[in-house]
Amino acid sequence: MQSTIPYLSLSIWLPILFGALVLAVGTDSKPGLTRTLSLLGAIVSLLVTLPLIAGFDNAAHGMQFVEKSLWIERFNIFYSLGIDGISLWFVPLTAFITVIVVIAGWEVIEKRVSQYMGAFLILSGAMIGVFSALDGMLFYVFFEATLIPMFIIIGVWGGPNRVYAAVKFFLYTFLGSLLMLVALIWLYFQSGGSFDILAWHQLPLSLSAQTYIFFAFLMAFAVKVPMWPVHTWLPDAHVEAPTGGSVVLAAIMLKLGGYGFLRFSLPIAPDASHNLAWLIIALSLIAVIYIGLVALVQSDMKKLVAYSSIAHMGFVTLGFFVFGEMAVQGGIMQMISHGFVSGAMFLCIGVLYDRLHSRQIVDYGGVINTMPRFAALFVLFSLANAGLPATSGFIGEFMVILGAVKFDFWIGMLAATALILGAAYSLWLVKRVVFGAVGNANVAALQDLTPREFFMLGILAIAVLWMGVYPAPFTAAMQTSVADLLQHVAVSKIPQ
């Protein structure tokens, strides 16, 4: 479907332009102007994504809201955008989380406010570009462009070891992407000089070629997800990042890797995907079980939630590689839900950190006595993190487990242990931080949520409950695209 109004371009470039404007006019002497302009930019950027949901045809096959124009003629590179049911919800989710992050940093960030807000707005546009790009080189440009603002956010506004964490984050994700670049260039020559991703899906490649391509993409996307054992950059990045950085990192940036598997690995190398599914399933189960156990012993709240993110993303990759419609849809649902839940968890930790400047669980206890509204929301998000029915966290995990059991009972059985481990580390966190007697004088002096904090957490609570109670709009949009993808992957692309 050709778009008459370039909604995707507006979704990408409006936040980038507002980010540039904030950088140009913002000064620390006028933080109010900077914050207002940033919030206006984030809200306008969210509003232009809403017609994508309203105008999306759930029954249509192929890409919708397509925009295409020649970008670099010499190499036949196009500025080509479009979304299907797989990518639809990630565009408004990215814009929505950006609004939340701007509100979250409203009073907390006091120095270099314009650079902070500008970095998040530019990052938002780049991430939406990743979800929308239909040209391989355009995808790569956006994919790598997301590293720059996040590197700056961690390196400038992070904790004591922020430079180490920022450099580690950059090196891991950048080096992982280099093999992807080689694969993109090889596919360009194989397709007769085209970077058209959809054309690559139809390439008849030998099994050995598909295998090389699969591993090249795996290096980039596994680091981004991140999958075990290339996950070690994530806890460091989360612990050192400011609250807003952790929210965007967990809620959106990790999804770029999962999305890459669906847009590149599975459709371009279907035979290799089937042959190597055992590897991805094994790595996913290790993430679900082993990393879940690692989360259980953490003393730092941020590290606990960071490790739980790796375990939850293990569900996503598991769902994709059991090749069932229910499981793939469940993996996508898990990515969307994780955007709400993990973002909310990091915001809750940020609320506590802003008051006591500590993320150590031992420094809290009995928070419900002094912060009852905060405690209610924190418990809700923790239960959603554990996969409680009627919250968004349950939907994706349940669908993946159903699909995994259909594929192989024992794989489904092992995956289901994540529900037990998720409940263990989430409830253990809640018990030590929220419940019991007041832990110390600092906790006794805590003030409950401000209206600003209550608003941002309340909006996320509504999203978590709405998706958990009524997931139909999400599943209905992705059903046709997922069915088309699995039908495509089921047909061998090895030349006869």
Approximate shape = globular
Strand content: under 5%
Helix content: over 70%
Distance between the termini: 33 Å
Mean of residue pLDDT values: 87
Question: Strand order of the main beta sheet, please?
Answer: 1-2
Describe this structure in words.
This protein has 22 helices and two strands. By secondary structure, it is mainly alpha-helical. The protein has a two-stranded antiparallel ribbon with strand order 1-2. Helix 8 (162-190) packs across helix 11 and helix 15 (301-320) crosses helix 18 (392-407). The chain starts with 6 loop residues before the first helix and ends in a 6-residue tail after the last helix.
List the helices and strands and how they pair.
Blueprint lengths: L6 H19 L5 H17 L2 H5 L9 E9 L4 E7 L6 H15 L8 H20 L3 H10 L1 H11 L4 H29 L6 H4 L6 H18 L8 H8 L2 H26 L1 H6 L1 H20 L4 H20 L4 H32 L15 H14 L6 H16 L1 H25 L7 H4 L6 H19 L2 H19 L6
Antiparallel strand pairs: 1-2
Helix pairs in contact: 1-2, 1-5, 2-4, 2-5, 4-5, 4-12, 4-16, 5-6, 5-7, 5-12, 6-8, 7-8, 8-10, 8-11, 10-12, 11-15, 12-15, 12-16, 14-15, 14-19, 15-16, 15-18, 15-19, 16-17, 16-18, 16-21, 16-22, 17-19, 17-21, 18-19, 18-21
Tell me briefly what this model is.
This protein is mainly α. It has helices at about 5-25, 30-45, 50-55, 90-105, 115-130, 135-145, 145-155, 160-190, 195-200, 205-225, 235-240, 245-270, 270-275, 275-295, 300-320, 325-355, 370-385, 390-405, 410-435, 440-445, 450-470, 470-490; strands at about 65-70, 75-85.
